[in-house]
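S.,

As promised, the D-malate run. Input:
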Amino acid sequence: MVQRNKNFAKLQAGYLFPEINRRKTEFLAKNPEANIISLGIGDTTEPLSKTVVKALVNAAEGMGSLDGYSGYGAEQGMAPLREKIAEVFYDNSIAADEVFISDGAKCDTGRLQMMFGNDVTLAVQDPSYPVYVDSGVIMGQTGEYNNDNQQFDNIVYMKCVPENDFFPELEKADIIYFCSPNNPTGAVATREQLEKLVDFAKTNQSIIIFDAAYAEFISEPDVPKSIYEIDGAKDVAIEICSFSKPFGYTGVRLGWTIVPKTVQFEDGTPVHNDWNRVMTTVFNGASNIIQKATIEVLNSEQGLAEMKALVSFYMENARIIKEALDELGFTTYGGTNAPYTWVKIEGKDSWEAFSYILENAHIVTTPGAGFGPGGEGYVRFSAFAHRENVLEAIERMKKLDL
Ligand code: MLT
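Predicted complex:
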């Protein structure tokens, strides 16, 4: 018999969002009449913009002609898309060949682990997006799970709490995951905080994996949208980003990772070389239809304006949710530079609060503990929903005794 990868046995329960879905389905089986509103997973709900749809149709039609047809493309992505991303999101401070196009930020997060192997130490913000920890566990970078503190050995959990303004005491590790705007707390790191992070990584010879998937949701003018706005970051940071949330591409699938040629491993090998090797080996490029369409969208002022309108729509949801929960007496965080509101719960743990809200208000939220031990005592409300559902959810929350 084939031996099971022993790292899988270390994982705790199922991956967070399927587990939430399982509990929702179980509840619905017993209560088929319940009209469930999902403010749980950050999954976009509004239709693709007109420019995106038109560009997708154009790209698909092109594939139906001899001249327009294309098969496999470059694994790193189409050159005009790489160039356009460098221009639109980085003001050309990043070279086009440092942009690697992919099928999404989550997939790249997993593939990055393949590049680092199992001999590195990890540091994560606690709470954090569960893919960082779970993919590290699968790769064998961690030890066993400890029930007493709900942490894996060999992972440094850097607590992010209101007391430190959700910016942690930085701790030494080879790889430091850092997400801003943060999923799940909704906090954003200031320029000074990011300077501290980059300095720390330089001093300790760490590599930062900066998750900027929610960068477009930042509304305050002085908050950096990219780690590369910080001097020196190009020597120590990889940045992951995504079209999913700002363009409504959660089902379309397109993202990118920036790997500057100046980030190096201990032996002097540019990380860029190995990332190129990973992508050319296990990835065959993102869909050519999606890439072609997105080049058209990024070249269109209208396309970019529609993206901003979509972001504003979700951020208005976030404002409504946060204000309503504040009025109800909850202590809330986030929700102004990120589509997530992080809500303190008193007298219940976060899975209990999740169940209570599901059973009594028929609203799906995300329990904070699903993001790591530092999330205990919180639930996360996502702003990705139709407006009428957000308003209805608020009315239902008013009736709860939470
Ligand atoms: C979340 O809800 O935390 C994320 O949207 C899920 C994801 O992007 O994979």
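The chain has a mean pLDDT of 97. The pocket of D-malate is lined by residues 41-42, 106, 129, 183 (CB under 6 Å).

- D.
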